Amino acid sequence: MRYLPKSDAERAAMLREIGASSIDDLFTAIPEEYRLTRDLKVPRQMGESEIIDYFKAAAAKNANGYTSFLGAGMYRHYRPVVIDSLVQRGEFLTSYTPYQAEITQGTLQAIFEFQTMICELTGMDIANASMYDGSTGAAEAVMMAVRITGRDGVLVARTMHPEYREVMHTYAQHQGHDAREVGYGQDGRIDLAALEKAVTDEIACVLVQSPNFFGVIEDIPEIAEIAHKKGALLIVSVAEAVSLGIVQPPVEADIVSMEAQSFGVALSYGGPYCGVLAAKEKYLRQMPGRLVGETKDTEGRRGFVLTLSTREQHIRREKATSNICTNQALVALMTTIFLTVYGKQGMRDLAVQNLAKAKYAADTLGAQGKLLFAGTPRFHEFVLQTDEDPEQLSARLLESKIIGGLALRKWYPELGNATLWCATELTTRKQIDAAASVLADAPVAAEAR
Amino acid sequence: MATTDGFVGTMRKVTAHLTQNEGLSFEKSSPGKKGYRLAPLDVPEVDAAALLGGAVRDDVGALPELSEIEIIRHFTRLSTWNYAIDLGMYPLGSCTMKYNPRVNELVSRLEGIAEAHPYQPESLSQGALEIVKLLQDCLIEITGMDAITLQPAAGAHGEFTGILLARAYHQSKGNARKTVIIPDSAHGTNPATAASCGYQVINLKSNAQGGVDVAALAQIVNEDTAAMMLTNPSTIGVFENEIHKIADVLHDKGALLYMDGANMNALVGKTRPGDFGVDVMHLNLHKTFSTPHGGGGPGSGPVACKKILEPFLPSPVVAQGEDGLLHWNYDRPKSVGRVRMLYGNFGMFVRALAYTLANGPDGLRQTTEDAVLNANYIRKKLEDVYELPYTTPSMHEVVFSDKRQVKNGVKTGDIAKRLIDYGFHPYTTSFPLIVPGALMIEPTESESREELDLFVDAMRQIAREVEENPQVVITAPHATRISRLDETGAARKPVLRWKGPPEDAVEVDTPAKEW
After folding, report:
1. Could you report the per-residue pLDDT of A53-107, keeping only the tens digit for each?
2. Which domains are present in chain B?
3. Which residues of chain A are within 8 Å of residue B369 when distances are taken between CB atoms?
4. For a tag site, which of A58, A335, A337, B122 has the least CB within 10 Å?
């Protein structure tokens, strides 16, 4: 086996030195009836070229060469080449969690830069070294709010990503939290009147996403006021991190939970992505996950260490703030490099391009149907209502090698034939025009309805 | 070197060399520098303020502004300050720091894989679904279980999922039960997991061999016991040879056996948890299946279970449709729900499958045998100089204690730091908790005999230093860019982000050397 650095002669010599007559001597602790005496039924050992061929064949069965208007929490942005060059350096790729600070300063300093950038972007005071993803990050934020307030009521906007809500419910159900949803109004934003009514002094937190699942920007200052009036915390989830280049950060929030996949992380059929929690400084001790802090060595030189680990499972065991152990360090590094490449000016330029593409797409495609929540500020996604059934529409678009908007009926049956579309800096005018022309060719039967 | 009196070892693996200094990216930034160029806009320009109204942002904050060459150098310089598997042995016990094959990285970046959107139509995701299905089938066969979910994003997340399954199972029988039994040798994630699933933790004291005390277990298992979380081989690297009795004791009271699969690298191809009574377990693809640790993630923590728990698996699950295509099945009325959005860390599935294909059944078995051989070789070569608290046979890792070295004022953490000077990453220190002053060493299969001999040589020289010159060990490391850091200060006054140049910053005036 080519990954194993030993010859049979070396193995035999080592066994002799140990005093074992055969390798089986080292496995005698396993009761005989449980020893596997046959080969595992997995595919036979392959050569490297065969492995590549297998995955190439699999990749060819996925969508290739299609124009895509899918977003919905996972976004296709350009990933600068230097990201992959740098994260494939073995010193980053094959390093462990940086417990041994003297020989992991590279990872530690990069995380410190990441934490700083996240604070700058979100307007929060502190950020952790990353969470699994946006959905689990939001769930952890809710548990954090419950610990801080000592209350167990949770209000979640129905305009939040449906899968985030599902994850939140899974986490909440065994902690005895009472999680309820708050609906949305004609403008595609959380219904403020309903929210005001629902927030009582038993509510630990209000959880909203902005830009929300429909791409609409929520009125964060207003929501914060309603929550804070009753002593509840506001958690804002940001699923499209690129929006922070041009959209006001949720500075009124107490905790921000972000999915940073947009910052140079491949879609990769759903992961790995990069969640991150940021918060006001006073909530530091309740923050789950890893934190990197600056300190000095015995000679007074600057260095970085994992810190405040007394919150964590390996010290606190069942009293820890979370069972989370590791984070998404390598993915966080990708996002750090992305943010370093674009920088202060680039993040704005990039976000504005997204805004422009989405405006053009919404105008052009909107002309072939009804644009929902049209008057509310949004980032780069929009909801289109059509006469035609989304499945039929999707099938027609696929014939032109276009993957259209995501059908929303599964989660929002009240919106009927609604689809969620996304345009980023990578979407071209030509692609938008092509999709519009397919939409315009709607079958007569559907138009007549 | 702090002291030259007495014995100072000879570093055979490393030679000190220069590394580049590098500040924070923010400190190198200057306005107007750019590392990007966008394609020209092909649609009409927009007025952001008009579109967004009050929600428009004026200032993005203090992100760095640098050119591409500076960015490359910045991160390359940082990278050289890290130790890595690619540089040498990483004897971290319980972490399974094995070689991360490069073909894994290549195939995970193929366009149809890396660019696949999780919501693209299933008819255009058949390749992705086939990868999921084949990996699932392989893992089910390797563990001897009946069903699996790949959704959990890491080992601890897998534990959470596994205990939720146990809870849902008991709930379906009318009583979720109240407690989870956890041996005192367990990873900290185990009790934290049980607590986050609403269970009270009952600690089980290990027996004189460091294993499960079956008699003591039998006394505490009752109708309130939901499950026991067991690591096998245990954290001292010992196979629980009474595993079937443990399972029986639990099953007799209707409780389940959860296995923490952190140490699965000792078992693959040699025995299967499903065969020895485990009901539910997680795997760590970043340990046993070679996906990179990446400085602390991403991981992936699939959960495999017996048929009785299958109805409760997180939604969705992969299913073959009547049309012959693979689908995600969301119709799971008994499911515990989602533990993560989408389907899990798919990029890690690709890598784990590539590893499995590269090995085949013979390679997987040989891998386990080599991992166990390496651990026993180290044990044999060091047991005369380091205390072996448990003499039970070792599997893939060996745990010593610092008992003999403490007499000279040297603790496991000091020996670990000294190992850095010898060119190795430290082993795991102070864990498991049942061994005071533990040195937990897991070489994995990836080490050649030459590398193992260098490690043994380093450990033996350090043992001699402890006898003859303890100060050189206590003050280690001596050869790193920075010396030991003030961790207490870091926690007392946390500085968790850069806040601009310090006000008291003074230019250090280093006198020029005369040549």
Report:
1. 999 999 999 999 999 999 999 999 999 999 999 999 999 999 999 999 999 999 9
2. 104-356 (3.40.640.10)
3. 23, 26
4. B122
Pairing of strands A406-407, A418-422: antiparallel
Cβ–Cβ < 8 Å for B181, B218: no
Which among B127, B356, B380 has the least Cβ separation from residue A58? B127
Phi then psi for residue A372, to 5 deg, are -85, 155
Closest-CA residue of A relative to B381 is A18
CB–CB of B444/B457 below 8 Å? no
How many Cβ atoms from other residues are within 10 Å of residue A13's Cβ?
14
pLDDT, tens digit (0-9, with 9 covering 90-100), for B274-302: 999 999 999 999 999 999 999 999 999 99
Residues 6+ apart with CB under 8 A from A9: none
Point out the residues of chain B with pLDDT beneath 50.
2, 506, 508-510, 514-515
Residues B70-98 have pLDDT tens digits of: 999 999 999 999 999 999 999 999 899 99
Q: Assess A183–B contact: CB distance below 8 Å, yes or no.
A: no
DSSP states along A306-353:
E--GGGSHHHHGGGSS-S-----HHHHHHHHHHHHHHHHHHHHHHHHH
CA distance B250 to chain A (A): 19
Which among B97, B100, B104, B98 has a CA at the least distance from the CA of B354? B104
Q: Do A333 and B364 touch (CB under 8 A)?
A: no
* Whole-Å CA distances, A132 to A62, A260, B124, B282, B341: 25, 11, 27, 17, 10
Interface check A96 vs B, CB under 8 A: yes
Domains and CATH numbers, chain A: 67-78+345-448 (3.90.1150.10), 81-338 (3.40.640.10)
Q: Which long-range contacts (CB under 8 A, 24 or more apart) does A84-88 make?
A: A84/B109, A85/B72, A86/A333, A86/A337, A86/B72, A86/B75, A86/B76, A86/B79, A87/A330, A87/A333, A87/A334, A87/A337, A87/B294, A88/B105
Q: Which of A187-191, A355-359, B1-5, B322-326 has the lowest mean pLDDT?
A: B1-5
Q: Does A114 touch chain B (CB under 8 A)?
A: no
Do A246 and B45 count as a contact with CB atoms less than 8 A apart?
no
Look up tokens 């008994």; give the residue.
B334
Q: Which amino acid is at A296?
A: K
Contact B86 A74 (CB under 8 A): no
**What residue of B is the nearest CA neighbor of A69?**
B120
Using DSSP, state whether A216 is helix, strand or coil: strand
Determine the length of chain A: 449
